[in-house]
Amino acid sequence: MFSEPDDPAVVDRMRAAHAVACAALGAAPGPPAAGGTREAWGWRGRTLGRPATGPYGSGWLRVVHSSVQRAGGTLWTGPEDAERLVPRHVPRPRLHLREWTEGDDVYRAELYDYVADGAVSAAPALGEAPRLTAAWWSGLRTAIGGLSTVRTERTAVRQAYLDRAMPKYLAFLCRPVPTVPPAWSTAHSDLHWANLAGPQLSILDREGWGMAPAGYDAALLHAYSLAVPETAERVRRELSDILASEPGRFAELLVITELLQSAERGTTRNSFRRCGSGLGKYPGPIDQTQPDSCNFSHGKLPALADWCTSWPFVTESENLTRVPTASPCAFTPDYARFDASRSRLDTGCVFSPGFGRVLARR
Questions:
Q1: In a 3-state reduction of DSSP, which class is residue 50?
Q2: pTM of the prediction?
Q3: Which is nearest to 215 in space by CA: 237, 171, 185?
Q4: Residues 142, 148, 152, CA angle at the centre, nearest 5°?
Q5: pLDDT tens column, 279-306
Q6: What is the C-alpha to C-alpha distance for residues 189 and 261, in angstroms, rounded to an integer?
Q7: Which residues contact 22 (CB under 8 A, 6 or more apart)?
């Protein structure tokens, strides 16, 4: 969820479009959603969602805007494609659609069925531990697994992006990084805590789903859990079959890449900065020609140092650099691979250039 756009013309246009959508679907504004939410804006005012009541009962009515030239892309067709292709055992609200054009603008009205339980978090990143049942976690594992097997030509992450972005934003590893994932599967691609309802599980916002490196959803959810260590540990435990695998390790490298890129562009969601990362201060790719560029203790990456102390990872290598508490992070020169032994470093944290994994102080 983003802030209301600064441009009042965008605000007025989207609110007017929402009124048109209500009329087209026979709906009316409804009472505030769980948590008191009356209005939810998308990035730069591209979407506007509000509670609504209509012929299908209570629901959530979201209006999406695009120019005529850009309508019809992956994000535009995502909800409709998911309604048609994703099996019903992946829990989500049903969808009712209308679409219309006004000059050079195209609008799509998406009326979703009422979800009795609100989102687990009002923001993508957790601020406190949620109270979720074993059945909820079991349902999440089943849903991620069920979605991963859906056959689609939709693409959420492209190989060209991996080839371009991962070497650039993971340059701090001071070693070539893998860019070809061990496996691909279908992913939600925006699986964070504001897109998960509970205690009755429901998965929200499916516009960007498609093929991605296997394990991507699990890696993303873990990243958005880091501000709450007990929940981050729970995610790792419940999704261990994914995160402890070779594809899962690659997916975590991808998530790191995306977050650092967002920080460089200044588009990192404010809520994620609560995860102890301060990624908004990240200065950009590292100059590997400078000898100090690969050591956090020299202050080159203070924000990233803060972030990596939140990551609980494990190793089977004994050749790790132990870092004094005064220097929170540094890089190990040794190759290290990882298993599920759950061993921990006593102090500091170490990046392994062998596969880019992080050893975190707990």
A1: strand
A2: 0.73
A3: 185
A4: 140
A5: 333 333 434 344 333 333 323 333 343 4
A6: 16
A7: 28, 29, 52, 54, 61
